[in-house]
Amino acid sequence: MATGDDADFAEFARARAGQLYRSAFLLCGDRQLAEDLVQETFAKVYVAWRKRLAAPIDNPAAYAHTTLVRTHISARRRRSSTERPSDRLPEQPATGPDSALRLTLTQALARLEPSDRALLVMRYLDDVSVADTAEALGISSGAVRNRSLRALDRIRPLLGDVTFAELHA
Amino acid sequence: MTDPHQYFTEATATLEPDVQGLVAGGLRRGRARRRRRQVLTTLASGGAVAVLALASVGVPQLLRSEAPVQPAGGGGGATESAQEEPTPSGVAPEPAQPRTLAVTPGQVPGVVADVIGGDVETVMAYPGDRDGVVAHFRWDGAYTTVFVDGFLEDRAPLAECRATAAQGMQCSSLPDGSAERQWQEQQPAADGGTTGRGLSLFTVDGWALEVISYNAAEPKSSVQTSPEPPISFDQMRQVVTSDAWFA
């Protein structure tokens, strides 16, 4: 699969694939779309990784996460512009200790705008700082805090008896 | 469970992807993308020399058989010939040297306000996929998105327009060889029933400029701020054809 100069990139990609896929899944709510998003992200990072006469990427993991989120938001806006009905089957419930939790969360996130969904995934799954989230999305740190709290507030009723102490801290 | 971080983590804890498949697929796409860029860079630099040489000997008509040149920074080379995507006049577009973008993502809402007026408030702004800019903002309170970015693939304007169009969207060629796409659609009631309207311009030098306007503060909102999206197609055309985007 990876030969020569690509071995270092392949090693990086293998190490990050799991986390990127989990983020992609929450962004897309669909396994196939998530796989496509991660592959597209790897393709973009690969081009930057192998760019001649360019400084190495400072923090490849953070770069990849930012690329993932931006690719997701841009693709949704650009390709179809508005959401359209799909003949793709929705994510099916799976058995497992976290499957009910996951289904509930993906259904709740689906109610949010892509940008707000991205904010929550960056902040609460990827554990990206407020400052780094703000930089990645081109907004102020205050906007990240306000919109994260508003988005959490919006999905909270959909999460059953889950209560987020942070909302009212 | 009171911590959202814990909730998000536990909800995805057992999601295990096919790591080898993801890495192999990403590498395959990345190598192909990189090859395209290398070809493009060669074509762009070689094309510039050829244009100068041909112009100097006075045979500009020969250029009409050339495919359009894409932006060197990331538009992709033109692999689809003008013969495959003829313009209405039957004349292939003149080759164009790629223009250089003159704005940052954060400046996009201001450029729109300069061109068509209105009060703007940035929601999100970041670089595009192909060395361009993307901004989501509110224009007089209505959600608006603007993309100015290189083509996604190595295609002629009309082909790129068609390839990135959703079902039902129509593309048309313009006399200068560029392509335009318009659409308007009301979203399902489950998504708030907002109406979106968009206009895209695909230029002969490989830039895609797109404006999308919604009649609400968010794309999916049950509270509409006006019966129709507030930015008209004519205003969108003013935005995408403005000289303000490029140096």
Alpha plus pi helix count of chain A: 7
Largest interface between protein chains, with number of residues from each side: A-B, 66 and 63 residues
Q: Report the span from N to C terminus of chain A.
A: 49 Å
For the report, how would you describe the main beta sheet of chain A? none
Q: What percentage of amino acids of chain A are in beta strands?
A: under 5%
Class by SSE composition of chain A: mainly alpha
Reading side by side through the largest sheet of chain B, how are the strands ordered? Answer: 1-2-3-7-6-5-4
Which segments of chain A are poorly predicted (pLDDT under 50) over 5 or more consecutive residues?
Answer: 79-93
Mean pLDDT of chain B: 77
Q: What is the rounded Rg of chain A?
A: 17 Å
Instruction: Work out the helix count of chain B.
Output: 5
* Approximate strand percentage of chain B: 15-25%
Number of E-state strands of chain B: 7
Relative helix content of chain A: 55-70%
Radius of gyration of chain B: 21 Å
| Secondary-structure element string of chain A | HHHHHHH
Q: Helix and strand string of chain B, N-terminal first?
A: HHHEEEHEEEEH
Quaternary structure state of the chains depicted: heterodimer
Total beta strands of chain A: 0
Overall spatial form of chain A? globular
Region (Disordered) (chain A): 73-98
Domain RNA polymerase sigma factor 70 region 4 type (chain A): 104-154
Biased composition (Basic and acidic residues) (chain A): 80-90
Keywords (chain A): DNA-binding, Sigma factor, Transcription, Transcription regulation
Molecular structure report:
The complex is a heterodimer of chains A (169) and B (247). With 169 residues, chain A is mainly α. Chain A has two domains: 1-78, Rna Polymerase Sigma Factor, Chain: A (Orthogonal Bundle); 98-169, Orthogonal Bundle (Arc Repressor Mutant, subunit A). Chain A has seven helices and no strands. Chain B has 247 residues and is an alpha+beta fold. Chain B is 29% helix and 21% strand. Chain B is built from five helices and seven strands; from the N terminus they run αααβββαββββα. Chain B has a seven-stranded antiparallel sheet with strand order 1-2-3-7-6-5-4, sandwiched between helices. The chains are: A mainly alpha (169), B alpha+beta (247). At the A-B interface, helix 1, helix 2, helix 3, helix 4 and helix 5 of A face helix 1, helix 2, strand 1 and strand 2 of B.
